[in-house]
# Entry
Amino acid sequence: MKRVVSGIKPSGTLTLGNYIGAIKQFVNLQSTLSDYEFFLFVADLHAITVPQEAAVLRKRSRDVAAMYLAAGVDPNRTVLFLQSEVKEHAELGYLLQCSTYMGELERMTQYKDKVRVKKETGITAALFTYPVLMAADIIMYDPEFVPVGDDQKQHLELTRDIAIRFNNKYGDFFTIPEPLIPTIGSRIMDLQDVSKKMSKSDESDKGAITLYDDFETIHRKIRSAVTDSIGIMKYDPIKQPGLANLITIYAVIGHMDPEEVVTKYQGQGYAQFKDDLAVLVANELGTLQNRYHEIIDSGTLDAILDSGREKAHEYAFRKVEKCKRKIGLGRIKK
Ligand code: ATP
Ligand code: LTN
# Structure
């Protein structure tokens, strides 16, 4: 059976960037790739690479699982689980560290960016080795595809390198995964600072629309989104990056091409476009929030996560046992 694997860190409040770049893509694949098996997890072990409050982290992990389901993840098609409940992820992460070089990890741009910002609070060793754990999360399940946003491309390349190196050394063992990055919406930018991506762990949330925002909040954030003084509706990510970002959001949520959006608002100022975009986003998120509330308050979420843990563990346990034997760990078999 062919497989698709993905995950999201419960490191903050989910944003429209996560929804467009990762969640929506995953749900679309689930309906188009009918002969594939899907594994999806809440990457809570990744969240603790930076300081977290225990109760908040537990709540966020549950929220991420509920949001995935609200967005259309079907528990009959997708094995949904918490990463920390399948212990083999950490175990395989360690085994793969022994096939990864310091130089490779030092080159990771996400790490370099985070180090720059977090210098005062201290950098954990886990923040450095995090891409190896991510590689383990993925190749554990031998997936063909990994749907992610643009920022994860480099981590996927490293994952492939580690898997290829392991296979060369110990014989064909891991499937080499392909990243699936959406053609539009792979990098939704911050509404206030279009030079950086919309991020859930940003301190100020003015530039990020969260999946919990109501219409007024969404309207306010979109109305104050930075655009330009050119004043002409055009999709030009270089000269009009703020506007292009908004057009991208409109296009993905409204199931249109960016050029169709431009044509629709040709000759109008940005204000009407922004007002309509706020309504479009609020409608989409309103439906999502209603489903989220039904799920989070129901008893089925725990049953889904229990079943996900069992199924993921069954696969992971066998894979790690085989991996350890390949490497030479364990006793001589009589
Ligand atoms: P953090 O800010 O805490 O590093 P994040 O918001 O980048 O987190 P992740 O958990 O790292 O979120 O990402 C989950 C998924 O969402 C990944 O596949 C990532 O590529 C995607 N994603 C995150 N932000 C965006 C964005 N602004 N645009 C498109 N996709 C995104
Ligand atoms: N590192 C990713 C989250 C993540 C992930 C994964 C995504 C952890 N493990 C496996 C895809 C597959 C991030 O920060 N976005």
